[in-house]
Amino acid sequence: MDALLQLGMVSELLPSEAQNSETSVSEAKDYFVSRDGVKFAGTHLIIDLWDATNLADPEHIDAVLREAAIATGATILHGHFHHFGPNSGVSGVLVLAESHVSIHTWPERDYAALDIFVCGECNPYKAIPVLKRGFMPGRVQLAEHKRGLIG
Length: 151
Prior knowledge:
- This protein has helices at 2-7, 15-20, 58-72, 128-135, and strands at 33-35, 38-40, 42-50, 76-83, 90-96, 99-106, 111-119, 139-147.
- By secondary structure, the protein is of the alpha+beta class.
- It has a single domain (33-150), classed as S-adenosylmethionine decarboxylase, CATH 3.60.90.
- The strands form two sheets. A six-stranded antiparallel sheet has the order 4-5-6-7-3-8, covered by helices on one side.
- Helix 3 (58-72) packs antiparallel against helix 4 (128-135).
- The record marks 98-99 as: Cleavage (non-hydrolytic).
- Its cofactor is pyruvate.
- Belongs to the prokaryotic AdoMetDC family. Type 1 subfamily.
- Pathway: Amine and polyamine biosynthesis; S-adenosylmethioninamine biosynthesis; S-adenosylmethioninamine from S-adenosyl-L-methionine: step 1/1.
């Protein structure tokens, strides 16, 4: 069996073999974060942009959110953006290896609602300057929530 694994011919371990594998579940990498004596899965930012621009352009929104996600240190897996029509809003999401970035826009109100949830060592606050450059909001409201809080 070991020879087959080395050749890449067997991709799964049977339960009895998993017990004997070199890395047990307790030794697996823990992607939770420890900061200031608190352990949690990741940081979720809820962001409201008011008096913002470029909120009806799905290509622009996609580009800004991709730049913002990369600024956090995240890995983009997939993106999808839906435009509701000319001069209408956009809803979209970037699926990240570390979680997600989403947006819903109301260009008629110059308003966008975003959330950025990243796990591990990613820093969602590094996305804020990118969002400010991309959407030029007059006002930003921000709330933080630690997800998966252990203590």
